[in-house]
Amino acid sequence: MLHRAVVAIAALAVCAGTATAQDSPEIEGPGLRPGTGSGLRLLPRGSAEDDEPVVIEADRLYGRPERESVAEGDVVFRRGPLLMKADRVEYQVPTDTARATGNVEITRNGNTFSGPEVEIGVQRFEGYFLSPSYYFGRTQAGGSAERFDFLDEYRGVATGATYTSCPAPDPAWILSTDRVMLDTAADIGVAEGAVLRFYGVPILAAPTLSFPLSDARKSGWLPPSIGLDSKSGLELSVPYYWNIAPNRDATLMPTVMSRRGAALDTEFRYLEPRYQGAAQVFMLPDDQVANRSRWSLNLEHEARWSGLRVGAVDYGAQVQRASDDEYWKDFSSRLPSLTPRLLPSSAYATRRIDSAYGDTVAYAQVQHWQVLQEREPDAFIVAPYQREPQVGLRQRGAAAGFEWRWETEANRFTNDDPTLVTGARLHGLGTLARPFWPLGVPGWTITPRVSLNSAAYDIAPPREGDATGERVSASRTIPSLSLDSAWVFERPTGAFGRDLTQTLEPRLFYVNTPYRDQSELPNFDSAANDFNFTSIYSDNVFSGIDRVSDANQLTAGLTTRFLDRQTGAEALRLGIAQRMLLRTQRITPDGEPITNRFSDFLLLGATNLVPGWWLDATVQYNSETDRTARSIVGARYSPGPFRTIGATYRYTRNASEQVEVGWQWPINDAARQQAAAALVRESQARDVLGGVPPRAVQTTGCVGAWYTVGRLNYSRRDSRITDSLIGFEYDSGCWIGRVVAERLSTGRSEATTRLMFQLELVGLSRLGSNPLGALRDNISGYRLLRDDEPFVAPALAIP
Length: 799
Description:
This protein is 5% helix and 54% strand. By secondary structure, it is mostly beta strands. The strands form three sheets. It has a 26-stranded antiparallel barrel. The chain has a 16-stranded antiparallel sheet that branches. It has a two-stranded antiparallel ribbon with strand order 35-36. Strand 8 and strand 9 form a beta hairpin. The two termini are 33 Å apart.
């Protein structure tokens, strides 16, 4: 029964549990467990480990039958996963007591505990461990205690316990407690007089703290967050994590902003077998700058209803709302939308129908938008149409060599802008294709396709500016014919010391769509497609339903790829494509007919043939003007972990010209040595594990490693830096410091600047505002200095 000592001693440190949530303000809670409706239950106390035999090895073994047994000299005691070593072990049979002395060392599940003396009642599990020190392999940290007393099989008390991942004798940070009470049956520990010191300065303290002893989540306070924002001033947040149930939790984050006042940020999450979701609410009752209440709301819900005769129905809802038009400028970090000025809300339901004719789906949706408008006229956004509702049925299938898709859908479109038309639309789409292989092999494929786009409208005039106010009905039906011919040729080759397979892939794509006048029809959801290597092989230059481009055109393209023969990875791709018009195209995005016989050339190149280099470029070239119409050119150099630098050039003639540079790079010898060591370890791990490096060997610390990180977005057209992020990271080995400044443009002459500080105590927690999300989102190839997910302390509950 001595192995139970390890279970208790493993919880000596205040951070022996698993994180309940990440750092604020970007709080990422733990994974929820689906609810079963049966509540909590206790697991049996016994286990197979209790029946493991005891094995003792020693230089000398003697004693008296039924009285005592003594083992001396390099004693090794084994039972299950427990390994204990000592100079001497005495076992008293009448009192059922084992006493180990001299260089006692206990190892179990990667954790090591050592001390001069242990005495324990084997069955009663009562006793003590004098001056134990410990090291936890999971957190790569440990500490020591003056004494640990075992009260029974499940309870113990540690006196004068410490915890740190820094080397002795003067650790940079250390967590110390006067007394820790542990109860493994209740899965809880209570620490008295807990103080966290950083270079001798107390930075966190509480007279009484409680924490979990396992992976279980626990209610309590999380580390505070401090940040600086040019719009709100100094921000101080102290999040509280509430573990409501195994399948429900909440985070409450009271926040004080020096310029705006007090606010509350909340998140509630739930997970059930048939539904899940989350709700995030931010409330600022009295904004002292704007002199009004400010708030934002983000709701997400997904569910499945399987109790119907028609079968299971998937349904859900998403709601994003903000209090006012200026919210996205003042609180940009609290809007999860990729388009912060355009906030969507929708509710949907879908039902898959089993059919012998193909995959059939029935669906319904209601969709709304909140547009955060600007005061300046040149920044005005035309509000998208709202669907109230959208109901449809679609199917895709294949049989007898034919492939088909069809869709029928009814929509009612509304808009808050009184100058726009509204109305309803019923449309039907259908395609029928018959691919075949003239040579009987997949190397050459010819696919004829017939398509039909039909729509009927009931149009209501604008609420403003219309004299008659009469509704109008209209309809149109547009057929289309296309023929797609593609070839794939292969040959073996080699370059840069690699065995490669080169492909040659020519393609011809012909489309014939007759002209239909659509000038009198509304445009509820159509927009011009981007001109790229995907859209050039499509039969319509528009997305959506309301606009169909007329066409009599042929697209020709050629692509060649170089593939690594062993891994199949693409090492090089080159491509060229051009569209030829056989008649004037009259339905165009700008309304002007296209009379030029040939379109712009599209050129594509991408490669990582040279180790550590990634290059890619797409160019739209006009041969008549001998000018580039648009281009995107990118390059990234990443020779190893924590070393990446990339640049992207984006150009659109008469519209924009931008240069973007991002990097993470070591700036001193210690950092370069750390990056080189991590690269060697990853290479060795891939050789052993077939390309998947284990988390435990990806990286380790290195004293005094300095890194610079950042991203700059420069507009050559405006001659100014639009967005920027610049910072520094310092890895001391047992703690990491980050300072990051971020500037986001919110207008031609407006910007929001944030200053984020973070102190990561390796093996314990992260303190301060969290810049990691901004670094990952903005720097291609960015990696955490600790790729094995730094351990984060459990929530600390102050009774």
